[in-house]
Design a protein that fits this description.
The complex is a heterodimer of chains A (about 400) and B (about 170). Chain A is of the alpha+beta class and about 400 residues long. Helix content of chain A is about 15%, strand content about 40%. Chain A contains 6 helices and 21 strands. The longest helix of chain A has 24 residues. In chain A, about 40% of the residues are buried. In chain B, about 75% of the residues lie in helices and about 0% in strands. Chain B has 7 helices and no strands. Classes of the chains: A alpha+beta (about 400), B mainly alpha (about 170).
Chain lengths: ~400, ~170
Amino acid sequence: MSAQGRGQRGRGTQVAGLGVRHATAPWALRVIPPRGRSAGPVTGRCGRGRALALGCAVAVGLAGALVAGRASAQPDPYRLLGGVSLDQFLRHAALAPQIVDYEGTKVISVLRGATMETVTVSEAHKRPNRTRLEFLSPEAVAGRLVVDDGLQTWQYEPRLHVVIQGPSLAPPVETPPRLLDRYEASVVALEEVVGRLAVHVRLRPRGTGGERRLWIDRYTGVVLRSEDRDPQDGVIATSYFTRISYGLNFPSAMFLPRIPAGARVLSPVEAVGPVTSLDALGRQLGYAVQAPVALPGGFRLQGGEVAVAGVLRVAHLRYHDGTRALALFVVPARRMGPPGAETPAPGLGPGAGAMIRGTLRVVQWEAGGMRYALVGPLPLADLVALARAVAPPR
Amino acid sequence: MIAHHVVRRQLSAYLDEELRPEEAAAVRAHLAACAPCAAELEELRATRALLRRLPAPQVPAGFLDDLRARLAAEGTGRRAWWPPVLVARPAVLVAAVVAVLILVGLPVARGRLERLRAAEVGPDLFVRQYVSSAAADPLVDRAFLGLVVTDANLRLIGEDPRAVGGSR
């Protein structure tokens, strides 16, 4: 573990003459007045003589040229994106895994509690939805292998000689959602990342805090670098390729699980369902599940299931706002004790706590004899506000 | 003819006129022919007469009141509700207590342990189950999700995801 990843910035180099970082949408072509003497006072001094008037004219001309120069320095998104809109470009990026094969080495830095952890992984992707991850460092994760065949994942831990089955990490092969409905997006610049021309895009989720920056390969749409910021914790996760190769047409065998001889195969969690109503969920669990069908920020209940891990059986409800997912878990407090306080969750009463895993946040609290947990990619303050809307602690 | 030893056991009942008529007639016939049994009958009769002449014992004054008071006190106070065998044999009593403690305490202790275990693995279960929803985000980093979900898997099977070295 290390803290070296925290605050990493500027891995790419800015392409000269194409990009200047701006705080607002760059294609708005705002005219930014130059500092110092403005046009008003200059014209006010022009009555003292012809020489002075000439000087004033020159000054006004220079000021105008400066304003025009600043305006032309704003990056034109259509030019940067090769003649497509930002919406089209983001859709292209969302579809990229379905149409591009790639392989590379990636460095991920994730905030875990109060420390930043950096992990290096070899990532291979075969379109449309197969992925192979080989963890390289640090030593504690080195050798870990994850094969995702598009249906489920197979995790092999050489130190334990076990294989653990889990859900697929692949997105559904379908038309991606329109990201601009939920994000306020802008193009920052064209930059070079790992030798590739990348479009630096800033995404701000509507209605919540936080910011996501993506460096998207201009030609393939693959995300070469990402950075997630939180208003409270600053940079909470970064990820970037240190090398990448495209179009390798990997053999399918690379993405099929191979169980090493003698390895135990474990499946620690079983999902029972799905169910389409809270009543049906309550019948399966033997207790009433109280949860709202809609949450602030446009999150709506999509469905649920029963998650079973050993003796623990919990109600798992899925919410979605069109681009981001939330999960709500409900279990009687008599069956589950309060969490170990990794991070406090202020405003959620005694016995509440939070857990931070990069962009993922978990808050747990107790209300009305039930223990609740809300998981999502939102800043902690936003997640706490949603938790209070789900079931206010007493 | 009735046996001699049988008549000797029936002499007391014969004297108290508690035998059936045919039995009494048989004893009477035997006594007429058996001198030892007749002598024993006479001894029994003399003993009974002697007892009847003894004075009747007097109950102490206030005995009934004391008895009623003590009975009332025992009725509202301590009362031996366990079988006498448990009092007579302490080992049985101890074994019974241990059995009750096991029968009642084991589920309670197991429930507490399960609650603690649930609190321990809960966040990892939540993260693991959430990841399948998070994967629907088209721009999410799958390597990041892979790291988070594999760590959660290991904790769910009771292993430290950051332990170095083998534990086989």
